[in-house]
Amino acid sequence: MTSYLRSWLTGAPTTATPDIPSFLRVSPPASDDGEDTETEQDDNSVPAFPALNSAQRAAPSQPPRILSDSALMPPPPPPSLATRTPGVSSRSSAKPSSSSLLAPAATTQRPLKPTKKRDKVALAPGHSPLDWAALKSSGEDLRGVDTLMRIPPSVLKQHRSKSDAWSAFNGKVYNITPYLAFHPGGERELMRVAGRDGTELFAATHAWVNADFMLDSCLVGFLISEPSPSSDSS
Ligand code: HEM
User: Fold this and answer.
1) How wide is the angle at C-alpha 227 spanned by C-alphas 225 and 231, nearest 5°?
2) How many domains does the chain fold into?
3) How distant is the alpha carbon of residue 111 from its chain centre?
4) ipTM, interface predicted TM-score of the complex
5) Where is the sequence biased in composition, kind Acidic residues (predicted)?
6) Is residue 84 part of a domain?
7) pLDDT tens digits for 83-135?
8) What CATH number should be reported for the domain holding residue 154?
């Protein structure tokens, strides 16, 4: 039985020995001449795998390649623990060539000073960002002007009170009065740019905020450079 299984595994020709029961014989049976296409009744013989005439069996079997020591990948350099001072990172230690396998030095550095605190402002009920989104798409007039204008800095400067505050961001002038109570940074901060170009301060505070989208319904015009006195007379 063992010799039969070995020959089955290695692919040696199967010669049905008398002691092998017929249900263990692999197909095609010895008598199979390929012409008889009729299936035999109750033929439960297991097909040979790989097939007896497969390329896999035909390929000459190669002995497994054994790597010699010199063909193997060299081991990593040993960490130079002996030169390491406890509490001092390998990066800041006198020996910069120490191994990179050491633990990162994150905990040995003093934390940086926290950046300037941004104060949270409690918005009045009904003044959440969602409320602003609803108001600006409600169709209510938030501009306070009939047509879009070309606005020089001198005109912009005249609109710097809470009830009439304009500010320019990226060349566009907006009426920021309706937004004051909705600004998450508070009215006071927003009023710092009333009557002037707030592009720089805006970008320094929160460049990720899309002012053009948030204030589109408050657009009053476009910032232009101050007209020279000579062009005034014409
Ligand atoms: C009209 C233009 C502006 C719009 C549409 C606007 C919008 C916003 C929005 C959406 C936030 C919340 C951002 C966030 O939590 O990530 C915010 C926060 C803030 N804004 Fe503005 N902002 C404007 C102008 C300004 C200006 C000119 C300043 C002033 C200096 C300013 C100061 C702040 C501050 C300090 C916060 C922080 C609030 C917090 O930490 O939650 N904003 N602003």
Assistant:
1) 150
2) 2
3) 27
4) 0.90
5) 32-43
6) no
7) 666 776 655 554 555 556 777 666 667 767 766 666 678 999 999 999 999 99
8) 3.10.120.10
Same domain, 52 and 141: no
Question: Hunting for tokens 């008598």 — which residue is that?
Answer: 31
* DSSP helix/strand/coil, 66: coil
Q: How far is the CA of 10 from the centre of ligand 1 (A)?
A: 77
* 50 shares its domain with 136: no
Domain co-membership, 138 together with 222: yes
Residues with CB under 6 Å of ligand 1 are 118, 120, 176, 179, 183-185, 189-190, 192-193, 198, 201-202, 205-206, 209, 211, 214-215
CA of 164: how far to CAs of 109, 118, 122, 156, in Å?
50, 26, 23, 11
Cα-to-centroid distance, 146 and ligand 1 (Å): 28
Q: Which atom of ligand 1 is nearest to the CA of 193?
A: 27
Atom 9 in ligand 1: residue holding the nearest Cα: 184
Pocket test of ligand 1: the residue of 121, 127, 190 to mutate, having most ligand atoms within 8 Å of its CB, is: 190
Q: How many residues belong to the chain? A: 234
Q: What pTM was estimated for this model as a whole?
A: 0.57
